[in-house]
Amino acid sequence: MRRIHAHPDKVAESDYKSTLQLPKTDFPMKANLPKREPEMLARWDQMKLYERMLEVRKEADTWILHDGPPYANGRVHLGTALNKILKDFVVRSRSMLGYRTPYVPGWDCHGMPIEYKVSRELGDKARTISKVELRRLCKAEAEKWIDLQRSDFRRLGAIGDWFNPYLTMAPEYDAAEVGVLRKMVELGYLYRGLRPVYWCFSDRTALAEAEVEYEDHTSPSIYVKFPINPNVGDAAALAQNSAEGAELAAALRAGKLFAVIWTTTPWTLPANLGICLNSTFDYAALKVGDEYYVVADKLVESVEKECGLSIDERIELKRDAIRALDGRDIFRHPFVARDVKLMYGDHVTAETGTGLVHTAPGHGYEDFVVGTRYGLTPYTPVDNQGRFTKDVPEWAGQNVFKANDAIVESLRNAGVLLHAHQYRHSYPHCWRCHNPLIFRATEQWFLNIDHENLRARIVEAIDVVEWVPPWSRDRIRNMTETRPDWTLSRQRAWGVPIPALGCANCANVVLDVETMKRVEEIFRREGSDAWFARPAADFAAPGLRCRKCGSDRFEKEEDVLDVWFDSGSSQNAVLAERPELRWPADAYLEAVEQARGWFGSSLVCSVAERGKAPFGSVINHGLTVDEKGRKMSKSLGNSPDAVEVVNRIGADVLRLVYASLDYTSEIALGDTIYAAIGESYRKIRNTCRYMLGNLADFDPARDQLEYSSMLEFDRYILARLEKLKHDVRRAYEAFDFQAAHQAMQNFIVVDLSSLYIDVARDRLYCDGAKSRERRSAQSALFIILDSLVRMLAPIIPYTADEVYSYVPGAQVESVHLLTLNREHPEWRDAELEKKWEWLLEIRDEALKVLEKMRQEKVIGAPLDAAIGLRLVSPLVPLSEVLDELKELLIVSAVWTLGPEELRQIADLRGSAQADDFFNEGTFYRTAGNPESPSLAIAGIHAPGIKCQRCWCYFDDGGDPELCPRCRAVLRA
Description:
The chain is an alpha/beta fold and 972 residues long.
């Protein structure tokens, strides 16, 4: 057994450090991204990087991501930044995959928020200003925000045709949008009708489903008694048990028989025209004192508990007997002098309430559907400001929500209020002004979602598309299967006008196809302001007459189109019109909430007009929240503008944050994750800097070795690189940026920093500058860096381009003009990888011994050690890999343990009763049979003297300062 003790190190008189090939590079260690990124952006502008990217790919296949337009209102927040950065990941990664990727950004310019802001700033003048002037001011407001948002998006590193975007307020866009509408008129999809729609009385306009948000709201929850009137006929016939029929008949005669409904909208009771039941439910009459209350069997217990009833008797009713009353006016309105119908509807559920649903066809979609089936005309005694009309004299002029309490009190005074309390629930609100909405029947333009089987065809189109993540398909599919007809008209000034003409004689309103064609021509030249500036006669087609009365005099209708129709038309106005693009797009990417917004509106417009979806894939992302999981908002102070964050941490760090997270779920942002990802960024940057430093004297054209001439360990790290290239390519193809980031980060931290760079450092520094050993390592580093910088480019484009500018032998001006390096499957040498994985397993065990030696202060660094090894059934004889193990372990020597040493180890292990033990300056680690261990490691301080140049220990007697390797290098 060897017994070696440390020798004092001799201090060299010569300056050997100057003979080492230490890293040299001008690439800055400090990133200083807030300053350096804008400089890089200016460079990209100067070289016209976007145009150059398209030019170098002009012969490649085109891949189109169509931009969903953000709203031109306010600075870019972190949620919008997430959206644009993810889109940039897609565009840049597809470019790196070899596609030509034109990206045309756009802005949604019309809509109520801009009009509301401008009107508020105008004050009283807003009521007298012309619509043309109001629209001019709205346009200026939109243009202001477009310029600011464009600056923000570009600062984030998003590449695109930023100075030639599409704008939904541009004349050519207005014309194309009217063209989509005209095609739908030609195909019979549009109708004008009176039916309930979401109505924002704050903004005095109709809203579509996509413009509705659900927020908590407190409403009166009331149970109301509707008397059953004599129209019911023989009430005794309703009882299942004939012996109980007499009670019901007596209760009817005494006015004590009631149907009980539950509602959280007392203000809709004046418009009640009936009560709906479910044909599959059984009903019972509950005797409470001298009154009888009809409710569904399934809800008796909940009604009893909620209303605090003491039920004396329960009389089951005949289902068929009730069904025989279908469509008859058997109920008396509780405070209006009219009888109302018994009806049936599938929307009646047993989840809450009584199983009898108050029905006001003018104030609810299901109510309207049922009422239409029963021939009821919607009744809506509420004006566009949400106030009761004179049809409800008791509360005329009052806001409906403010009248709720008075209505409840009136019910109580009339003796028909069974129970009331305040109820906190989710309620529809306007997504712009955030005020509660009402359902109100108005004359609007609608798109019939079931005309020509459109709904079913949209579902079929959804099933053909690739949805990312897969569950997002079910979300939009379910929404499509249940969505109502699309309310297209809005009572606003700032939008694309619906080119409908009303007869000046009889007020009949029409959408005439030939007139719409003239409108398209005028809009394309002058923009949609022309509708408000020109007389109706300029638009009416020659010979147009009213179909109802024959008059040739018309007036313009001034409703505008829903802004979702604006953006939904982009598939025609942009994809089909811009020469560098094509229809359909390869992908759309937006927040998951756009299933009921842009994704849905685009599908309706596209399938109705063109018969298929406008996209091949749809990528959904989650929303941003703060580190406490709270929705980001200015009022909470947890939603800084994106540029504020970028000017603090850098755009590449923010981009790396987004790449590190699962974008399909909620994205939690804050200083904690910024700091953590900032450290990851520094690891990437410093590793690239180290590789650059070791390539200072490397010219790929002159110095790069052929793969077959490289050392085995260098070929092994290239095999690991091949796996990384394959994994990153597959991740980019699948839009899985988190997987791409994790693969690269793991390679940089584990394969490069902790293994390859650590091991190859000795060769790079100490071997001859032009030696095969050093050039082999440099060749590997060059291939790795050249591949890695391309893979990083989609995620951290500023830093990737900065690194690339220092790479030796760079062929083009920017890394973004390149593609991912081609894969070399032949470099995935299975036998080579198997051998080096085995050697790395030995290394893992040996490092544990070296760490123990360091802790006990026997050595200071691994080169102070020598390691003895014994292995059972190695892949190759241990004697053949001693040099590789010496390099891999970064020790001064590795030897094979002899039989006598193994016997001593077995004896020592038996007395120590452990796998790790120490004896007289030697550290041991064993595994397996104590008599014949499968693994045995002995660690000692290296014998000999320390080389003053490379710090390896040697003892050949040839030189008191330099080992044989260093002597040979210096003499060469």
